[in-house]
Amino acid sequence: MSACEFESLEKSLESHLPEAELREVRRILFGKETQKLDLPVAAVQAASERDFELKGYRFDAIQEQLRPPRRIRVGLVQNRIVLPTDAPVLDQVNALHSRMAEIVEAAAMCDVNIICFQETWTMPFAFCTREKNPWMEFAESAEEGSTTRFCQELARKYNMVIISPILEREELHSTVWNTAVVISNSGTVLGKSRKNHIPRVGDFNESTYYMEGDTGHTVFQTQFGRIAVNICYGRHHPLNWFMYSMNGAEIIFNPSATVGDLSEPMWPIEARNAAIANHCFTCAINRVGTEHFKSEFTSGDGKKAHHDFGHFYGSSYVAAPDGSRTPGLSRTRDGLLVAEMDLNLNRQLCDKWTFKMTGRYAEYAQKLTEAVRHDFKPKIVKE
Q: Which positions are tagged coiled coil (predicted)?
């Protein structure tokens, strides 16, 4: 079986382990068990008819005496491109809009309050090709582009906050960014969060397409909680998660596009660790499928030129501050993951583990200031 055909770790475990042993393995791998949500029959039927996976799980918190529960539902969407990469640009965008409308409708049936799509969801992940045409034509305005208008309509229709990661073109200076547009459930564009860290790893050398972000670590206050968007490569940088948390994020979304040979061993760890370290929920989203391009390209690794970047392995999941996480979506199918969470769990775990209270941030800030100086000398004791 090839890597792109392997559906999921969870299904493999369920197929080969006795129930009692499976419970212990799940406890060690995923922490405290997340209970399955009872999703509406209409949503389950819609997912079956439209050929995408639908899963739902619940994170519980202790019932407090002075604060009522703050239960909300988030939705994570992973999907493959709909049309071939050489189809006309507008046709590709429209086809993906239509596909997303189907999935968002099912999310609304499941009472999802906040939904997040994958990185640059309106296009193939063409940055591996190092070509500019026609890929730059997918870039559009974050405030007035057709994709934002499309998402505004969905947000108003379903009373849902929508996080829409796109390739953004800022017309004034024709600067291009990798940007997540955050749209309120009222349909208002709350703002945008640009990708802070740009990879320079083989095919992930995206610096010729767009710039490092200039929006810092913005947190958005929504009707359903404070959210932030840490785009793709930013998940490899612990301080990136940390700064969103320091600005008050209760949920940090990580829309991504990453392939198996490069990052899969890190995928189950990073967002989960960030949730634990920062006392917040994290949502890791990855696209699925293998995208083929007409022109061959190389990866700077000495291997022969090829027509695809590799298999995007999906496996989207949600992690909680207590170290628990949902099972992942499939490695091979489009999917919608619904997670119900009580945001009170964030403070409860902060009180339990006190990572922030014991953080010694003033000391780190001082030492980091020293470390970035050109004359910095590391503190090393030698015999």
A: none
Nearest to 322 by CA among 283, 285, 280: 280
The C-alpha atoms of residue 220 and residue 300 are separated, in whole angstroms, by 39
Q: Where do the domains of the chain lie, and which CATH numbers do they carry?
A: 34-371 (3.60.110.10)
Which residues form the catalytic set? 119, 195, 232
Question: Tell me, what's the pLDDT at 1?
Answer: 65
Cβ within 8 Å of residue 95, ≥6 positions away: 82, 83, 87
* Contact present, 232 and 258 (Cβ < 8 Å): yes
Residue 318: left if φ>0, alpha if ψ -120 to 50, beta else—which one? beta
Q: How far is CA 281 from the centre of its chain?
A: 12
Provide the pLDDT for residue 300.
73
Question: For residue 202, what pLDDT band results from cuts at 50, 70 and 90?
Answer: confident
Structure tokens, 346 = 């964030």
